[in-house]
Write a structure and sequence with these properties.
Elements (H helix, E strand, L loop, with lengths): L2 H6 L24 E2 L11 H8 L15 H11 L6 E4 L1 H13 L6 E4 L5 H8 L4 E4 L19 E4 L11 H9 L6 E4 L20 E6 L12 E5 L1 H12 L8 H11 L2 H24 L3 E2 L6 E5 L5 H10 L2 E2 L11 E5 L3 H17 L1
Parallel strand pairs: 1-11, 3-4, 5-6, 6-7
Antiparallel strand pairs: 2-8, 7-8, 9-10, 10-12
Bound molecules: 4'-deoxy-4'-aminopyridoxal-5'-phosphate.
Length: 360
Amino acid sequence: MNVEQNQTGGFRSCFRRVTPYVPGEQPKEQNIIKLNTNENPYPPSPAVAKALREMEPDKFRLYPDPACGILTKALADYHGVGADQVFVGVGSDDVLAMAFMTFFNSDRPIFFPDITYSFYPVWAGLFRIPYEQKALDENFRLRSEDYAQENGGVIFPNPNAPTGLLEPLSFIEDILDHNRDVIVVIDEAYIDFGGQSALALLDRYENLLVVRTYSKSRSMAGVRIGYAVGSCELIRAMQDVKYSFNSYTMSQAALELGTAALADEAYFRTVTDRIIATRSRAVKRLTEQGFCCLDSCANFIFAAHPGYDGEKLFAYLRQNGIYVRHFSGPRIGRYLRITMGLDEEMERLYETLERAYGSL
Ligand code: PMP
């Protein structure tokens, strides 16, 4: 057997070959400053800590409710929709993957931006969905006319990632008006940091699916909770796919903790306001240092320094215990994506960058 056959022939030809998504690093070292995966620097609500203390381990003997009843109901009440309009999953990645599988089944390509959440092409590859990536304009904004051509579905984050740029509801409405015969998915992972939600359009568009997460604004990335809100017809279709794949997606613990978090609106507002304030200060400080910062509505800033290469700055920060995210690519290679941290962490970032300018 030659080497080539050894690597790809025989049973190996049965493998599903995919190019996986590469998540941001989760470094093991202590005392680092982690501004690379858009987590929330503040703890979850005290209501979550209380629910955790009061959790009854005996409940773990049993399978959890496959319909995720308590959390679905709490989310429906929170958003003022019916419980049959909410689909819960293991982080929004799980919800988005289910949406791809359920709704993107056309021979026509689905459309999403060329600079966006890099999991979209991975799911399209995994599920063999044809896709076209539409180039953002020179200001990194989506062009609505690109999404008016015939397609098999549309998905983009609002605000977009990694740019942080928000499109207004009128833009989303325009996309919906031009795409009545396909499903339009708006990924609102970062909407709580200053954007108007497309949930307001649900009554008028039965083909709109809005996807949300607890990972950013609710400080619960480690618990893995995401959800979608849409017409009951869309949600039912997603449930059918979920029950054909894995009935028990959400652990009992996640269901209880996710429900508890929703009861504490005051804490949620305090934390998101704090991050928005940190973002305003960070834009000011980084701009003073010479960075160009895109106008972010998310919990991160996408910024480039005209005098310094993004990859070099990234490496310098990393050597100094500060993790930010850098993506290579012709248009974004100069940029750093910096998650908003605690005030003292941000100060360390500014000081370290000042030192970088002297030594790079
Ligand atoms: N959508 C976007 C745009 C994201 O940046 C992320 C975070 N990687 C997600 C979805 C998924 O987040 P999670 O699975 O933690 O809800």
